[in-house]
Structures are given as C-alpha cells and as structure tokens.
Please model this.
Amino acid sequence: MKNSITKTALYAALLLLPSLAFAAEPAGGQKQTLMDVYKEGGWVMHVLLVCSIAIVWLVLDIIMRTARKRMTPPEDVTAAREAFIAGDYVGAYQAMKSGNSPYCEVVRAALGSVGHGKDATEEAIYITVEKINATLQTRINYLSVIGVCAPMIGLLGTTLGMKGAFGALGTSGADVSQLSGHIGHVLVATATGLLVAIPAFIAFYFLRNKLQGGIHYLQDEAERLFRNAPYEYLQNADVGQEETFAALPNWVESPEG
Model:
C-alpha cells in the first residue's frame, strides 16, 4: 500500500516536470530546479499537484477496473458455463454469489429473474450492465472535471500573481525589465494548469473507449450464457432462494378468515 502511494505521488510529480520549460531564467544564467519553479507558481501549485496525484490514481484505478480479465474473469465464465451445462442453476447462482466480479453480478441478477421468463432475464442483464457502466463512467468523468478545472486554477494563480506584481512595481517604481521577469514567474501557474489538463483529457477519452469495449464484452458473455435457456422449465423457479420480505397486504384476509 505504501509503495503504491509513493509511485502515485512520483508519477504525479512527473506531470509537473514540463513546467520547467516555462520558467524565466534568472539573471546570471543560473539554472532553476523544479522546486524553484514550483515556488514561483504560488499556492495554486499545491492544488495542481493534488490534481496530478488524482489523475494518476484515477487512471491506474480505472485501467485495473476496466481490464477484460477483471470485468469478465475466465474462471467465473467457466464456472457459470459448467453449472449451466449440468443444469445446476442453483449451484450457478451460489457460485456467482461467492464472486465479486461484474460478470458474477450480472449473471446473479439474471438468475434471480430467470423464473419470470426470457424478457425479465434479459431486462435484468441490461439493467445490471448499465449500473456497472454508470459506476465506472462516473470515475472516468472525474478526469474530465480535472481537465476543465486545472487551466482555470492556473489562470487564477497567474491573475493573483500579476496583481501582486503590478502592485509591487507601482510602489517601488521598478523598470519594465523587472516587470517582464515578474510576468514570466506568474505564467508558470497557467502553463502548469494546461500541462495538467492535457493528460487528463487524453486519459478521459482513452479510458471511456476502453470501458465501452469491456462493457460490450461483458454483456455479450452474459447473454451468450442464457441463449436457448429452458425458460419453460424454469417458470416460477426461485433460483436465487433469497429471503422474501414482501408479504400480502395486511388488509387482505387470509383464506381461513
């Protein structure tokens, strides 16, 4: 866990490295370190660093979650198929209940509705797949939010820096050359905001397409499992065998009454 956090912070810091190219070279031709550039950007650099860490964490997390072997594990597919071939639908439900993959969730929901016919089973598959898709898409959308907000955060830092620079020049009566140096410093925040936003948008579109591929494969595998299922023999079957809480309304009299 500690190593994972360290790697995430390292990758996030790498996103800020290109901002060195936008730093103004100080008098005397001395080279600036990354920390010098970071300090020049002002307090907004802390916010942009957090955004960078969030981008790296989201990208790694979503890549793992949307991997085909993670969404539709071959071992879960094999277990479900073997149970279906043997006609052991209750065993298939229990096997899917013990798993935690999206495939297990979809098949488990479909088996819970299989006693109500083909239409109800297909609807259960569709609804569960859409729920999984919405959950993962929400995570991906955070990348878009960061991509939109990062340039504005950088621009805010530059605006506040320019205000302070002009205020200092107005009181000290400095020349234009000093003003240009101040402008070069405060523009670091804007440049960094753009450099954070670009990979966020690239990752957003890449992962969105990757998710759609994984979702389509998941749905295809689930529908293939129930193709030509003997719904007439499964009519009114309670495959899930879950506890039922919905009793008759208390105003309905029992047959004995």
Notes: Confidence is low (pLDDT under 50) at residues 19-25. DSSP finds ten helices and no strands in the chain. The CA atoms of residues 107 and 222 lie 6 Å apart. Residues 2-21+31-229 form one domain.
